[in-house]
Design goal:
By secondary structure, this protein is an alpha+beta fold. It folds into 2 domains: about 160 residues, Regulatory protein AraC (Jelly Rolls, Sandwich), CATH 2.60.120; about 110 residues, Arc Repressor Mutant, subunit A, CATH 1.10.10.60. Helices cover about 45% and strands about 20% of the residues. It contains 11 helices and 11 strands. The strands form 2 sheets. A 7-stranded antiparallel sheet has the order 1-2-9-4-7-10-11. A 4-stranded antiparallel sheet has the order 3-8-5-6, with no helix packed on it. Strand 5 and strand 6 form a beta hairpin. Helix 9 packs across helix 10. The protein starts with 12 loop residues before the first strand and ends in a 6-residue tail after the last helix. About 0% of the residues have low confidence.
Length: about 280
């Protein structure tokens, strides 16, 4: 479809889609996608639009205003916007953008997680892959190809995954990166003694602040995450080996068999021996 929006050139195009009930209940789904050529005087201000916008700048520059904060975007940057909230963007010069409005049952949770950790203005971690996937959705509509809603959901999931791994335009040392390092360390060294102070020192944070952000982002305090990691490994050994329980306790990072059995019963509501006798595989 041709755009008749003021200061959007006539060679711009966009496509709309009405998702099925199945897609609305299960998938991420596109609502509009397009490629626009914006002229210098372009300006849009709106709210109460029930979906989310990803706008990738492919040429030129514009200014996006979110929460009263103005941010300039140039080629290779993108805006991730909750269109229900007041937002605006205006051209700083002639610019071009590839964009997608989408929604889905988990869209708001993804948006909250990405925006709270990385902000609304991002550098795609792998720009070529990101732009290729975003273009794939646009080109399916442009070329009148069959619409497969599960495939569309897969492409949007790939786009959101790239955003989860992208960097904020202002802050490349966000605390979430410290958490990623800590979680990786725990999963590689859970059989060794690990203290809160040690983890906090590794990422140059105070123990209190580290514990607070870890709990907020991971959903449990660091010491509980360490225990959960050790228990998950122990459950795997219980179900897949004939090793004695004492040996499994030490191989999973516990300091004694009694401590392991007490912790296992507290968390799993059964003893290690009872768990081993079940037929389920973890």
């Amino acid at each position: 479809m041709r755009s008749y929006e003021r200061y959007v050139t006539s060679d711009s195009d966009y496509y709309t889609y009405t998702p099925s009930a199945t897609a609305q209940n299960m998938f991420f789904y596109p609502l509009l996608t397009g490629y626009f050529y914006y002229q210098k005087n372009y300006h849009l201000k709106r709210s109460n639009y029930n979906n989310f916008l990803i706008m990738l700048i492919t040429k030129g520059s514009c200014m996006v205003t979110l929460n009263g904060v103005n941010t300039n975007l140039s080629k290779g940057q993108l805006a991730f916007i909750d269109c229900e909230s007041l937002h605006e963007y205006r051209a700083l010069e002639d610019y071009e953008a590839l964009w997608l409005h989408f929604n889905g049952p988990l869209a708001r949770e993804y948006y909250k997680h990405i925006s709270s950790n990385s902000g609304n203005i991002l550098f795609p971690r792998n720009l070529q892959v990101f732009e290729h996937t975003l273009s794939k959705i646009y080109n399916i509509y442009k070329n009148s190809e069959p619409i497969k809603e599960a495939s569309m959901s897969k492409y949007i999931t790939q786009i959101l995954t790239e955003l989860l791994l992208s960097e904020n335009h202002m802050n490349a040392s966000h605390p979430s990166r410290s958490l990623e390092e800590s979680v990786t360390y725990i999963n590689e060294h859970f059989t060794e003694p690990i203290s809160l102070n040690f983890l906090a020192e590794k990422v140059a944070l105070s123990p209190f602040y580290f514990s607070r952000i870890f709990t907020k982002e991971i959903g449990m305090p660091p010491h509980q995450y360490i225990i959960a990691t050790r228990l998950n490994f122990a459950k795997f050994l219980l179900q897949t080996t004939d090793s004695p329980i004492k040996e499994i306790a030490f191989n999973s990072g516990f300091t004694s068999e009694s401590n392991f059995c007490f912790t296992f019963k507290k968390w799993e509501k059964v003893t290690p021996s009872q768990y081993r006798s079940t037929d389920s595989i973890v």
